[in-house]
Amino acid sequence: MDYLIxxxxxxxxxxxxxxxxxxxxAFISVVTFTLCLALLITNLLNxxxxxxxxxxxxxxxxxxxxAESSALxxxxxxxxxxxxxxxxxxxxxxxxxxxxxxxxxxxxxxxFYAIKIILVIFAFFxxxxxxKFLPELSTQKILFYTLLAMAIATFLPNFVLQxxxxxxxxTLSNAFxxxxxxxxxxxxAGLGFLAALNRVANEIDALSPELSSELQIVCRKVxxxxxxxxxxxxxxxxTGLLELQGLVSIISQSVKLGSSMGDTLREYAIxxxxxxxQKAEEEAAKIGTKMIFPLVTCIWPGxxxxxxxxxxxxxxxxxxxx
Length: 322
Known about the structure:
Helix content: over 70%
């Protein structure tokens, strides 16, 4: 406590004011902790939820796990309005990134912002505790490092989420041409489109479990009564494969008209395979540029030291002898 008051005194230059600020912060922390604890206990001891769980015909272990998970989800849901941003644009963008990264649960958005807040709190107290073991640091430096750690903790989850979403989209994009080839073969063999899509979803699991799962979701939605065009549009929205819009339009028209899709799917399969090859060639063309930095910093100094170093030493010795 004295250490924190000393830090605050270094900022406000008044010990009495620093004590009042510390007492205010402590009061706010206690009130916040009490409210969170009350929300948690209220959700855990809700009689309606207890009654619903007692009426369910599930095993004891499964019921216990479900109750704990439900209590946690309900607690996070009740805190959603406090931890999520008010901007709908930011919420929608984050929700889209979570879908592209494979997190489609209802509470995924709330969990994401809860993780960000927890990381910020850990960063704040981590820097304060670490600064206690470094007494040579001034108050201004401690404040700077605290703000820097909190900023990193705020933006790090966004960076990780964007990387995961981009990696998953790339994985799905690389596997889709192979799935399209299988779809051409199965439709030309006489299967209906939905049966062919289900067969492809099962066969592609060894190559890309993510794409297999997404295709199986499409098949389940169609069986439950969702129109095929809407299910395919939702597939594009979940996966982020925007280049499939044209394919979805043609499939929808073929389903409505009852025409054969073999030739159309074959053309699209060739096109997607060419796109995948072009992306691979593009990445290969970038290797030369990416190799400049390691060549200049790691390889060339050692090469010139070995190749030209003895000659330079001999020249210096020759001129030094004269």
